[in-house]
Specification:
The protein is an alpha/beta fold. The protein is 60% helix and 9% strand. The chain has 2 domains: 5-136, Rossmann fold; 156-268, Homeodomain-like (Arc Repressor Mutant, subunit A, Orthogonal Bundle), CATH 1.10.10.60. The protein starts with a strand and ends with a helix. GO terms for molecular function: DNA-binding transcription factor activity; sequence-specific DNA binding.
Amino acid sequence: MYSPTILVVDDEHNTRMGVSLTLQQWGKGQWDVDRAENGLSALEYLRKRAYDLLITDIRMPLMNGIELLETLREENNDVISILLTGFAEFEYAQKGLQLGAIDYLLKPIQQEQLIEAVEKALKASEKKKKSILGTFLLEEHGMQKGDSNYNKINNPSIESAIKYIDNNLDKPLTIKDTAQYVHLNSSYFSVLFKEETGSTYSEFVTTQRIKKAKELLIVSDIGLDEISEQVGYQTTSYFIKIFKRYEDMTPKQYRDRFLEKRKSLNKDT
């Protein structure tokens, strides 16, 4: 599982630390929170990493929150954002909403309001991500996320085996282990699996590993070492070799193609 990525931007040290620590505690250590003290510093982070959520103060030195959002729009970066503002900055907050901010919070920030706004924003980010992912998969592969040739499996044992495979892609997944899981003899299971899916067991497992890898490449910015582990390959070099064999490109090229497609989609919206 990958963690939601959040960037907190505020020139006030106490606010910056308070917001980030609150989110880390609420996320039970699963939310990946970075911090920046002004808009220019935030831009450096945002150009290097894809964030699920940006939480930024409006009034800051060097580059304020509105200027940050304007720059992100020019660069076709559609990160979901929340503004932090004082009572006297309401007009700026309205400008921020026009630039795509999903919400704003008045200082001093109340913990309950912060958590509510962040959870709402992360849901919006996930919805947008799935929409872009679906468009990309449809254009690149003629399929929607979740589509499969295996949806019409009629045998309960094979259905159970497929679920077992999909839930354990980080493991070796030998045919013996999967056959034992569904209480079948390995030889019989192998024949039955091919009859039901049209693929050999090893072909199917590899296809599912690559499919999961493609999703991780698109919806997260985690490195290839971690992705290769999550989809069951002991070495990154072997993962890259198999991925290229199936997709005619490296994992990095696949991710770069998606990022370019996302920029193109953002320009059209």
